[in-house]
């Protein structure tokens, strides 16, 4: 099971606390614009890269609008990872991107 967080809630958390953010958009989308500090792990290759994550850490998962991150959270949670879906994705992000 995983949790969800709204973008306004996530933005407040991001400003206050260092958190691990996983961006599951494809590499070209990530290269175009992403939240500074986000880890790029495209959903299409998640099964091959999941072992790079630490099961003792909490991860927030973001995509463009929230659908791919929801799928990623379902997969990661089934593998024992602690994840939270960032609803709205980068489309709803009001902060800076790099």
UniProtKB/TrEMBL annotation:
InterPro entries per UniProt: GlpE_sulfurtransferase (IPR050229), Rhodanese-like_dom (IPR001763), Rhodanese-like_dom_sf (IPR036873)
Pfam family, one: Rhodanese
Sequence ranges assigned to domain Rhodanese in this UniProt record: 15-98
SMART domains for the chain: RHOD
Designated name of the protein: Rhodanese-related sulfurtransferase
Organism: Trichococcus flocculiformis
Lineage: Bacteria, Bacillati, Bacillota, Bacilli, Lactobacillales
